[in-house]
Amino acid sequence: MEEMESGLWQALERSAAFYEGGAAFDPIPQERINPVDLRRKMGLTQAQMAPMMGMSLSGYRKWEQGQRAISGPAAVLLRVIETAPEAVKQALAS
Length: 94
Known about the structure:
Elements (H helix, E strand, L loop, with lengths): L1 H18 L15 H8 L3 H7 L4 H8 L7 H12 L1 H9 L1
GO molecular function, one term: DNA binding
Protein name: Transcriptional regulator, XRE family
Organism: Rhodobacter capsulatus (strain ATCC BAA-309 / NBRC 16581 / SB1003)
């Protein structure tokens, strides 16, 4: 649990630093996360993954089909979900 919380805090701190104007900060990891691979790794359906991303099912499907680009904040959220999925689920449940 402690490792999961640490990963979540690191991702949030990186995002905050970027939005506060951190000049040398790159919020998007060099290697982008494939949403299909992540979703399958977590054993989720598209209908389960879309709300975790805060988006509609049709919007999420467009990501997976390559019809819509993954934005910077969404890429960060994918990294947080990959790093600390239970923390994200807990945050959404509360």
